[in-house]
Structure formats: structure tokens, C-alpha cells
Design a protein that fits this description.
6-stranded mixed sheet; single chain; 6 strands
């Protein structure tokens, strides 16, 4: 975790989904990383973490888990943006596969412009 700042104010969250575990990154309104953490890719873990967070804009990539995760996050009141992998070339064409950095990239893209090749 980059800091102990609380999760209030205008924040954006990127969530890189994996089969067993996922990474999320929380950016404050100036784009500073205030939290990065790994969690299990289960409904229970997602609920525990994201039900405790006030509604935020959240970005994730399309994939096997994105349908149920996006539904769950939307039900919790979050604005969920799902990126088609081919439209997020910063992630898809990266030579270094790093889930933590992918979560950061998703958060930064959603913070800049939610209309960049995404669907809700």
C-alpha cells in the first residue's frame, strides 16, 4: 500500500482480474496511488472490499470474470467501466505482464476519460 489515506474524496479504482487473485489500485483526484492491494477473485472477497468503499468509478478489462464482477460492483453502487482488451493497448501490448501495474493503468485511463474505448 502506498499510503494510509482513507478512501474519501474523488477517487478512481482500477481492477485487474485474474483467475485466482486480482489486484486493485486506488488513485486520488490528483492521480496519486493511495492504495494497492491483492484480493481473491471471489464474490465474497470482492463484496468485503468494495462494499466498504463509497461509490466510485471503477475500471476493469473484459475477461472470464468481468461479467459477474461488473454486475456485483454495479449492485454495490459503483460506476463500472469495462474495457475491451484490444482497446487498452497499454495493457494488451505490454511486454511486462504485471497485474499490479495493469490495475494502475486501468485506474489512470478511467480517471482521464471514461469514454476511451470502454462500455458500461
Amino acid at each position: 500500500m502506498a499510503s494510509n489515506k482513507n478512501l474519501h474524496g474523488k477517487l478512481t479504482i482500477g481492477l485487474d482480474l485474474g483467475d485466482r487473485s486480482s489486484w486493485y489500485c486506488v488513485l486520488d483526484e490528483s492521480g496519486e496511488v493511495i492504495r494497492e492491494q491483492k484480493l481473491s477473485t471471489t464474490a465474497k472477497a470482492m463484496q468485503e472490499v468494495f462494499a466498504a468503499v463509497p461509490p466510485r468509478r471503477m475500471a476493469l478489462e473484459t475477461g472470464m470474470h468481468s461479467p459477474w464482477v461488473s454486475r456485483l460492483l454495479s449492485e454495490l453502487g459503483h460506476e463500472v467501466i469495462v474495457a475491451h482488451a484490444r482497446n487498452v493497448r497499454l495493457i494488451g501490448e505490454s511486454r511486462r505482464k504485471d497485474d499490479r501495474l495493469d490495475a494502475r493503468t486501468l485506474a489512470r485511463l478511467a480517471r482521464i476519460d471514461p469514454q476511451l474505448g470502454w462500455h458500461r
